[in-house]
Design goal:
By secondary structure, the protein is mainly alpha-helical. It has 8 helices and 6 strands. It has 2 domains: 129 residues, no CATH class; 59 residues, no CATH class.
Length: 211
């Protein structure tokens, strides 16, 4: 039931004028119109997008588009209040370096907790990691890790070992115990213990024959 009383109308008008949003870092309610970093980033984004589209286009940006996203509490879009940015609890994003695709660029990078899909331990995709991913490595801002840093490093080592293994097998001299042992070590790196044992045994036999 709608409250048409004077107090009810007053509350409704106050709510409609409410320009506050919850900072995803400190959890405090902030007036988005007073956040200088957010407004500066929004101005850069608006100027860039407005140059691409005509005013009547459905893709023409809103003057307060980022502030609107903050107010609506979009969970997959990130910003931070001036206090958190000054305190280095969040990092301002350079949106000119972000690879976007569709949507609105992130206004800031904030630590994002997640659980590693490999080892199931709690981890954090830190603000500084995001800045490196999105502004240096050029990943789409919608791409984010499912594995913790040690597990990602382990996967990278395994990929390198697989490439090295393929090269070693292609040029393998089965009479050379040194090469056979090298192949065994590469099988160890990718977690193929049975194969490693086979090649280590062949290397041992070859050494015995050469004596």
């Amino acid at each position: 039931m709608v409250d048409w009383s004077k107090s009810g109308m007053k509350k409704a008008r106050a709510k409609s004028r409410d320009r506050s949003a919850t900072c995803p870092v400190c959890g405090r309610r902030r007036n988005v119109d007073q956040q200088k970093k957010l407004r500066a980033t929004e101005a850069i984004w608006f100027k860039r997008e407005a140059a691409y589209y005509e005013a009547g286009s459905p893709f023409y940006p809103l003057v307060d588009g980022m502030r609107g996203l903050a107010i609506s509490g979009q969970r997959e879009w990130f910003w931070a209040c001036d206090g958190c940015i000054r305190g280095r609890r969040a990092l301002t994003a350079n949106i000119t370096k972000q690879v976007l695709g569709l949507g609105t660029p992130f206004a800031a990078y904030v630590d994002r907790p997640f659980r590693c899909s490999d080892c199931d331990t709690p981890s954090v995709f830190t603000a500084s990691e995001q800045q490196h991913w999105y502004e240096t490595l050029g990943f789409l801002i919608w791409v984010y890790p499912n594995q913790c840093a040690p597990c990602r490093a382990k996967r990278r080592r395994k990929r390198r070992a697989n490439r090295a293994l393929a090269e070693a097998l292609a040029g393998l001299d089965t009479r050379d115990p040194t090469q056979l042992e090298a192949v065994a070590r590469l099988y160890d790196e990718i977690g193929a213990a049975a194969k490693a044992t086979v090649y280590r045994s062949r290397a041992k036999n070859r050494r015995a024959l050469s004596k």
